[in-house]
Design brief:
Elements: H1 7-23, H2 29-36, H3 41-53, E1 57-59, E2 65-67, E3 80-86, E4 101-108, E5 118-122, E6 138-143, E7 152-157, E8 160-168, E9 173-176, E10 187-189, E11 194-203
Parallel strand pairs: 3-5
Antiparallel strand pairs: 1-2, 3-4, 5-6, 6-11, 7-8, 7-11, 8-9, 9-10
Length: 207
């Protein structure tokens, strides 16, 4: 059975999704209260409770809000596909572990290769500005474990995800930054990393 949201719940869901995309965490109840024009945090808390009860959001074990599906999505419309937005992939978790997913974001199917699994990752820092990836941009990634020279990859090193240009030589793999900031140096590796996917495109953060 499909749960129907009220207009207030739809407005709240839209605000929560946008906040997650731009800030990397869910808004507080007071943030939600201000954004929706309520005079009491209780009103915002009740709206949030409704979204959770109807399966559009849930609380993680650490208490943070996770956005599970987009109420604006028309399931009869085949032009978009839900893609998981990944937060910080630490604590030894696989990058696509359920606990790392902040929200499901509808993305045009024209951007996602047919038959591929994709995810969105929030870029951090300025190590890839030369490749057009700015701090807090969203990066659309095709999930795969192999790469060829020149690909922009998401690699997992010591349980932390990094975006770099992939270059394999006979004896090693080099993950190259693309930045004028000389503090960013190539990372030279052998087998102590895992490729999580290949960057398809970058979605600039408007804020």
């Amino acid at each position: 059975m499909v749960e129907i949201l009220t207009q207030k719940e739809r407005d709240a869901a839209r605000h929560i999704r946008n906040w997650l995309v731009h800030h990397g965490h869910a808004p507080s109840v007071r943030d939600l209260m201000k954004a929706l024009g309520y005079s009491s945090p209780r009103s915002a808390a009740l709206i949030l409770k409704g979204l959770i009860e109807k399966g559009f959001a849930r609380r993680r074990r650490n208490g943070e809000l996770q956005f599970l599906k987009d109420p604006e999505e028309d399931t009869s419309n085949a032009r978009t596909i839900d893609v998981p937005l990944i937060g910080t992939a630490g604590c030894g978790m696989p990058i696509l572990a359920q606990e790392n997913i902040e929200a499901m974001i509808p993305v045009s199917k024209s951007l996602t290769p047919s038959g591929s699994r994709c995810f969105l990752l929030r870029a951090k820092g300025d190590s890839m500005t030369g490749a057009g990836i700015q701090d807090n941009d969203l990066v659309l990634v095709r999930q795969q474990s192999t790469a060829k020279n020149g690909d922009l990859v998401v690699a997992l090193i010591d349980d932390e995800a990094t975006i770099k240009e992939f270059c394999r030589s006979e004896n090693a793999v080099v993950l190259k930054p693309k930045s004028k900031n000389k503090n960013h140096q190539p990372i030279i590796l052998r087998q102590d990393f895992r490729i999580q996917g290949i960057v398809i495109t970058t979605i600039p953060n408007p804020h």
